[in-house]
Amino acid sequence: MKMNELVREFITKRTLSSDMELNAPLHEAIYRLEATDKLARELLESNKALLEDLVYWPSLHDMYERSYEYCCGVLGCFLIAQFQSSEALCRTAIEGAVNLHYTSLGDSLSKQIAYFKNHLETERKQNINWKNSVASSSHSEELKQYHFEKIDQKNIALNNYEDMLRESLSLVQVSFDDINEKWPSIFDRFCAINDEIGYRTIYAALCSQAHNDAEDALNKIYARVCASVDGLDEAHFIEQYNFSLYMALMAIKYHIFASAMYIAKLEISAEPLIEHYKKVMDAITLVTENGPRLVREKITVRQGSNYALKSLTSFAGTG
Fold it and tell me: In terms of domain of life, where is this protein from (predicted)?
């Protein structure tokens, strides 16, 4: 298929060859990500005068930028066939998109302050635990002092962050200390955007790769013990490829929808972005409908291997 210019630019920016062949869903993933980003930036530029008075906008846009860059990383890893790394980064990309979506709802400024306060509180707790671990360790006094100095430096940086937030917000008559909204858990953020099922399925599956759990190792063992099955290695590669592509598309789906919510929050019509969202959903459907068939076509079970045949009926659904 002919490569779209936005797709070509995405690939060449990452010092990859634009002569590489892309299947339709992968081409669609890259194109829809880049087209959405281009459109979002055009919409923001044409409404710049409106945005200047919105206190929460610069930080909300920072969240958009991070969500976009995570998706770029997902596709970058996929293009160089680092499928497991791409999956692990999908988790971060989806969490970034969920954060953008959640913060675009309701009182965005209070949510941002809660986000910042949660970070500062978490880091300070980690510093206390770090200091306690060093103090009770068998390290030399010299090495302990080195750690204590680093902890002090980090605490100073956290205090500086807090002072900066407090002072800058006071300039727009917002009290940093009076905002008591809590930053919710990732589960509660999924629920807040009405996507608890997404947490239980997509996000939970991606946590598997991010935490380096045993699933991939089990699949390797499975391939070795099924001696009466031909084509299992090739089938597993195709399954891994399609599962990783599916997750990359899901990350882009979350990002585009969150981008639409972000744009709509700014009272700009997000309708043009929804068309890109729908096209990504079509690509997801294509991968889910064809992936299992491609896997099954590679597997041949030799006669007399009823156990292997029964076990492999669900192989195409793993990931």
Answer: Bacteria
